Amino acid sequence: MKYVLFACTPVDGEAQGPAEAARDPRFTAYADEMRGHGVPRSGARLRPPADATTVRVRGDEVLLDDGPFTRSEQYVAGFDIVEAADLDEAIALASRHPAALDGGSVEVRPVWE
Amino acid sequence: MSTNPRARDVETAVADAFREEWGQVVATLIRVTGDWDLAEECAQDAFAQALDRWRRDGVPRRPGAWLTTTARHRALDVLRREATGARKLREVAVLARDDGPHDPEFEDGSEVGDDRLRLIFTCCHPALPIEARVALTLRTLAGLTTPEIARAFLVPEATMAQRLVRAKRKIRNAGIPYRVPPAHLLPERITGVLGVLYLLFNEGYVAGAGDDLVRRDLCAEAIRLARVLARLMPDEPEVLGLLALLLLHDARRDTRVDAAGDLVTLEDQDRSAWDRAAADEGAALLESALRRGRPGAYQIQAAVAACHTTAATAEDTDWADIAALYGELRRFVPSAVVRLNRAVAVGMAEGPEAGLALVAELEEQGELADYHLLPATRADLLRRAGRRAEAADAYAKALELVENDAERRFLTKRLAECRSA
């Protein structure tokens, strides 16, 4: 089965870019783990919500908002699409994601296929 | 018909088989079809057919195998009729293969036993909400109907139906595996399963005489499921520990409230009315669990319960032993409630002042601030120390926090005693 692991980070935390993550041993350990499960080139690290623009269409009007579509205590900082035999395997993978530590969380969502 | 002894025998046989085999039939059908709803439907159908066919042909030698085979054939029929998509066709193929040389009549018993374990672990998967785990366990393993489960948990039937539908949907859509977890996951998953059974039992234990029978019967269901689990996992001391704990609690069940529905403390319970058979079985199970040398939270709690049931009178209770056991339990369950229980035991073993010191420690740390049993425990220790005015204040404090009616009446009575003295 395919799952998406959403890496959720507390809004008041420090946003870590790809360059910093590459130097973080926790991320490199996770990346090694991912190699066996990751669907090729299917994941991304996202810039923080401050750089987001939310688009809505109401009638003929295109409405724009600065920021994310919902305000919450955590935001999605990145995602990975993985291939796993079942939920237990996906959970095992998510539990090794650095985002699951330190006040963050990883949401595991099955891909609707 | 009801006067016909043979018809009645058959009804009894089907009722017995339902209690014994329902979970087994559903478990196997889920494995072969991968479809929980279909499995339940076919199991139900098999039991309905049994009423008819057993009356005509007699009760089969192995009712469980008969029921499983019948349910399987039913599933095969349904799937063949509906086999339009490729997925369904695959399922039929699996089913046909399983129906071939491995006809369940001749199937190895251990494989079938494994099915039931698979079902237990899947129902209690930690990715499901706890209410759903409990409901699924009662529905698929114990065979309770949705209305019965709704009544047992005091929620509207539609809410319970929705809960079961969502849980089954999540199992399918999120890919929760239908299996006994591998060794590295097993310890925490067993703890999860035991937690569900203990919760079930406690729901029944707190039920009063005014509650629906199905709610009070939750204790019996929990014990029955714990027995099944103990049979399937005979080498897991915590499984035996839980079964022992449930039996030891259940032995005292009827003496905890009087005819008026008021609480009777352990001290004042009629020990001659305790269920000796249940207490002895619990104690024996506990002993065999402890012999394995891998203690755990349930074994220790069972040991505490056994200290009570083996004491001939309240005065004979070995409180020092109980205090030591609670000290040990803290290693497994680092909760403030365990510390409070230990305070009670220490108060009984070493005198009220020693217990009060431990209660004060909890209060200073701000633990259990909203828990009525914290001031109630302090009140009881003060009462035993003869400090009645202070005890009355503590009872009043406990009364502000208590929610359960029987407990409120008990605390009110104690408060009045302290004030009148």
Describe this structure in words.
The complex is a heterodimer of chains A (113) and B (421). By secondary structure, chain A is of the alpha+beta class. Chain A has helices at residues 18-23, 25-35, 87-95, and strands at residues 2-10, 38-45, 53-58, 61-66, 74-83, 105-110. Chain A has one domain: Alpha-Beta Plaits. Chain A is 23% helix and 40% strand. Chain A is globular, with a radius of gyration of 16 Å. Chain B is an all-alpha fold and 421 residues long. In chain B, helix 5 (109-123) runs antiparallel to helix 6 (130-141) and helix 6 packs across helix 8. Chain B is elongated, with a radius of gyration of 25 Å. The A-B interface holds A 1, 3, 84-88, 90-91, 108, 110 and B 125, 127, 173-177, 181, 185.
Rg of chain A is: 16 Å
Number of domains in the coordinates of chain B? 3
Low-confidence stretches of chain A: none
Helix content of chain A: 10-25%
Q: Biggest sheet of chain B, in brief?
A: none
